[in-house]
Amino acid sequence: METTCDDCIKGSIHAGQPKGSEELIHGLNTYVVGNRTDPRAVVVMYSDVFGLGLPNNKLIADAYARSGEYLVYLPDFFEGDPIRLKMADLLIPVDAANQSTVSKYTGLLASMPSFLMWMTRHKQGPTEKVCVNFLQKLRRDTPRSQKIGMVGFCWGGKYAIRAGLESHMIEIDGAKVPLVDAVVALHPSHLTVPDDVEKLVVPTSYGWGVEDTMVSFEQKAKVEEVHAMAAKAGAAVPEMEHKAYKPGRHGFGVRGNPDDPLERACLEGTEAQVLDWFHRWL
User: Fold this and answer.
1) pTM of the model
2) Most C-beta atoms within 10 A of its C-beta, which of 95, 153, 166, 277?
3) SS3 at position 94
């Protein structure tokens, strides 16, 4: 990945030294951290578009592994092609108040051609195939007594949710089983409602930002309505949880400014949301 200057990402990277290591797991370069001997469960992270190159993502994996209960995998689902870090402060500035409109849109316009090309390389079909292939191998390689949780952020939120769909269940020893046993999706982008959420078979927790300009807070109500209608029609709907964060600027679960009390509360709140949900279901 292209090296970026300090000024391009100043203030956007959280302090700390990742404690895990990168290894080849089920065909993907994967950041691995946590209990390798007798984990309570396996947790798979699908990061935002900045992937393994953004240290924040590895530090979040470290936080999930800190209790010693989980083995945490952060695969490079982008296969070496994440968004470059210099886009981070244009898309999700740490201090939006100090970013002029001119600098913001000049930077975005200059970066748009490469971003659009990236989007064409990461359409839903092939993107989901990479994710599903990894999860299928992981599920078959994991004892049925051990559960798998998945958490996704932004871009990864959509695919974490879709991992829990009925259509992705696989057969193991004559029984149909889901790819994962519980899901958390934080500020999930590019959701298609109802398709991405209608046929979920595992408990799913969502985190929405009240002031998120990239994922409308109105999505929360739309997802809730889909599940309410399904339950009313007699469908078996697994337990759903929705949490709202304020201010909840986009990226609040990954790139929130820890020096801002409100944004720090979002960072700490989403970490607790994930751990609480997995403690309950895994």
Assistant:
1) 0.89
2) 153
3) coil
